[in-house]
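ok so dumb question maybe but i'm new to this and my supervisor (M.) told me to 'just get the structure for Acyl-CoA thioesterase' and walked off. so i did the thing. is this what she meant?? sequence i used:
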Amino acid sequence: MDDQNQPQAAPDFKYCRESRVFKTGRVFPNDVNNHKTLFGGKLMSTIDEVASISAMRHCRTNVVTASADSVDFLLPIRPTDSVCFESFVSWTGRTSIEVFVKIISENLYTGERAVAATSFLTFVAVHEDGTPALVPAIIAETDEEKLISASADQRSELRKIRRTSSKLLASQLSTTKYWE
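this is what came out, is it supposed to look like this??
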């Protein structure tokens, strides 16, 4: 077997830019809710899609969504807008990957652009057998990347607290069928 077919060792670190993903789309009538703004579930689905691509670009292995830490809807997105999703890896643990997603709306008539939503998601890198895979560290270069990465440790701690609370709550919830 020649050298080019040999698996390469994972790098110790990667730059945020190496995981950056952009996706732009239109808002069509079937994408809106009763308020004539982009349906939140549609936005959340695309957020998960682009974030998972960023995570896989970073680790070059399978990933699973561990949590959607936040989706903050800041401004309505209307049928007169395009919507641009920009994502990149903002933090890594041993096997976990935090991805930041910025959603920009653009009025297609005026050209006015605004940050309409932001989101943080966490993924876990996994081998084909489902066991967790180690991931490279991340290096932020731009001012925006540094701003987002600066508070990543704090978000990681909050995720651990929230996950513990969620597990405790789940352990106390009933799984019986409501009709029984």
